[in-house]
Amino acid sequence: MSNEFADETIDVVAPGDAITMDRGSGPQSYKVVHKNDGHDSYLVTMEGADGETFEHEFPSGATVTRSLESKWESTQSPTPKADAG
Fold it and tell me: Looking at the whole model, is its pTM more than 0.90?
């Protein structure tokens, strides 16, 4: 399931998810670190592959592309992984 993506509203995105957005150099994947619920918008803190964090404000209901494997294959997964050895 590692390369599956789905269009979702920003309303259902949670910390630990990876979403794709274009910051001017083409679409890239960013990890959602924090999501602050506002009245008509969400202030989302994201982290890039280089470790840089930044904030972006999304209007409520905005559509984003979310990686479906982001939570379940990450180190933040709530399900313990069995050791292979």
Answer: no
